[in-house]
Amino acid sequence: MTHSTAFWRGWRPMTIGMVLLASVGLSLAQVEPPVASKMPKDVTVHGDRRIDDYFWLRERDKPEVMAYLKAEADYTAQYYKPLAGLQDKLYAELVGRIKQADEGVPARQGAWWYSSRTLEGKQYPLFVRRAASGPQRSYDAAAPEQTLLDLNALASGRKFLAVNLMQVSPDGKRLAYSLDETGARDFELHVRDIATGEDVAWKAARTDGAQWAADSKTLFYVTSNEAKRRNQLWRHRLDGNGPDELMFEEKDELYNMGLGRSADGRYLMLYSIAKDTTEIRVLPADKPLAAWQVLLARKSGIEYSAEHREGQLLLRINDRGPNFRLISLPLPKSLNVTPAQLAKAKELIPHREDAMLERVALFKQYMAVQVREQGSVKLRVFEHAHPGKPRDIAFDQAVFTATVGDNREYDSDTLRLNFQALTTPATVYDYGMKDGKLTLRKQQPVIGFDGSRYESKRLFATAKDGTQVPISLVYAKALRGEGPRPLLLRGYGSYGISSDPRFNANDLSLLDRGAVVAIAHIRGGGDLGRRWYLEGKLAKKMNTFTDFVSVAETLVKEGWTSPSQLIINGGSAGGLLMGAVVNLRPDLFKAVVAEVPFVDVINTMLDETIPLTTEEFIEWGNPKIAEQYAWMRAYSPYDNLKVGAYPAILTRTGINDSQVPYWEPAKYVAKLRTLKTNSATPLLFDINLSAGHGGASGRFDALKERAKVYAFMLQQWGMATE
């Protein structure tokens, strides 16, 4: 992105405070915070005058921008100097709970058992496999181990490393995998010969998803454009000499593409997905040179997923209601389902207003469905021979999350599932779909943890419009005491993503100091099903923010906390939540931690070159349309800052973030510094100059970042010495 010469003639040098801080690292008591120069840019639309003084911070290649970012990083570092001992203590606690040398529960795929291992002191896992033993293909821990990928070796000399994809070919001889070395989601696809451990010469850039054909020589993969929209499907032949072939290009900017495979391995599936519409193309896995066929043509508002069993097509579809139903019909030879055929489909699971059908896991003789019901995620099993007699998998906790796990074998009567709750660490079970027996395979070790010391509760807040909004809380029973306590309230509330009650070992460092941790299950998320999401998006987005305020007010009213003890935390779209609610009620919160926050909503949604923008018109609206602009104008955090007192604020970001660019929180902090009247209250901008949206990639580096956040919280609670 460039600007005219006239624009850059308007540049003013860094302030004296910025220069001093960047060059000599003076303490906060000796120097003022960095002050970004104002360079007014008119961003007015629809006659609503808006002047953006900090638009120039987008120019990361300009030395002035990087100098400002480094000055902010140095200023934050100065703030943390007195907290260094607390950070070290917290980091030791977080690391001390980890069983560093550990192995995941192996999952069988064909003739091999696959798992991952972590090693003492190492940042990244190893992905390994062992040969199955005997005619029953049993797991033998003593069998020789074969390393597929050692991420520690791959990360050597790099500041960041993330793996996005690992797909073993059907014959078990090759591994397709993709790596990102910057945090910007620029994944490069590779193919490795597993026997030799060597990669073939071919590779593909900007990939996101791949699937092998049945011949183990043809690899289909999806690439992204400059705006990181997944828009092209390619075919690569490992035994060919020609260039890769473009098989399909998704032209509609509202859609992203993804690759999948039916559970029986018979069909490859190419998903074109918008926020409210789906279209699937299918290809027989054993016919890689055939043409992909549209399964069910896209229709605005209709979402579906597909499975195949014994010539029958199973569709999870929302044509009769937002919470989806499951239907079955013969798969046409043409692979294309007409409206008439759809109308004659057999209904296996009807739509329910009070429960959402989230996922279907298909097996040869059985089917497991994941259902969101009464605020919990539950599992139900059907036998194809007796579909009218489903069996619920029962657990002894009232509020929990039970989800379909790593199931790779189609012809199996065992369901691998994951279970956890606020007071129960992540647990892996195998469930016998034939005999109903639940077998514990592993509960994630948490060193020093005793679940009996903690308790969780479910409360409800009455929202502005009378809706009952759930709240989940967890605390140490012996430290609950009487009266208000320091409380951390988290929220998200976008994209239909649910903030399910899950165990967080890191939070024990807060709970064991007497803090309460709460989750606001606000609208815009999928916590209570699809309608819950629809009631918190587009024109109804303000419900997300007022719900959160109502939750906070309820926690205060019912004596759990007080405004002087209430800290709130959210990331990405949850960072938008943080900015919006602080603008609505700055008096209600002691402190805010906004991580990779989406706070410059209007400017970002006006720029279609930024990743995610066009596809998210269906989430937030299109600000080029006056009515939809008004929705966003009412809550956009950057545009609604005003003169006044604000809570203590810590914003965190990564320089390579491609989902929420670094300049959003940078601009937010720069502007707020000119409006905030309580200058003694900290306003911090913590930027990782070698990471992206998810922060540090190594597990120990990530824990150092978490210790930093917790140190800020404890300092704000007045508990920095505890």
What is the secondary structure topology, with strand pairs?
Layout: H1 5-9, H2 16-24, E1 41-42, E2 51-52, H3 63-80, H4 84-96, E3 102-103, E4 107-109, E5 112-118, E6 126-131, E7 145-150, H5 151-155, E8 162-168, E9 174-180, E10 188-193, E11 198-204, E12 207-212, E13 218-224, E14 230-237, E15 245-249, E16 256-261, E17 267-273, E18 278-284, E19 293-296, E20 304-309, E21 312-317, E22 325-330, H6 339-343, E23 346-349, E24 355-362, E25 366-373, E26 376-383, E27 386-392, E28 401-404, E29 414-421, E30 424-432, E31 438-443, E32 454-462, E33 468-476, E34 487-490, H7 508-511, E35 516-520, H8 530-534, H9 542-557, E36 566-571, H10 573-584, E37 591-595, H11 601-606, H12 617-620, H13 626-633, E38 648-654, H14 663-673, E39 683-688, H15 699-716
Parallel strand pairs: 34-35, 34-36, 36-37, 37-38, 38-39
Antiparallel strand pairs: 1-2, 3-5, 4-5, 5-6, 6-7, 8-9, 9-10, 10-11, 12-13, 13-14, 14-15, 16-17, 17-18, 18-19, 20-21, 21-22, 22-23, 24-25, 25-26, 26-27, 28-29, 29-30, 30-31, 32-33, 33-35
Helix pairs in contact: 2-3, 4-15, 9-10
Report on the architecture of this protein:
The chain has 15 helices and 39 strands. The protein is 19% helix and 33% strand. The protein has 722 residues and is an alpha+beta fold. The two termini are 48 Å apart. A hairpin with a 4-residue loop joins strand 17 and strand 18 (278-284). Mean pLDDT is 92; it is low at 1-29. An 8-stranded mixed beta sheet has the order 32-33-35-34-36-37-38-39, sandwiched between helices.
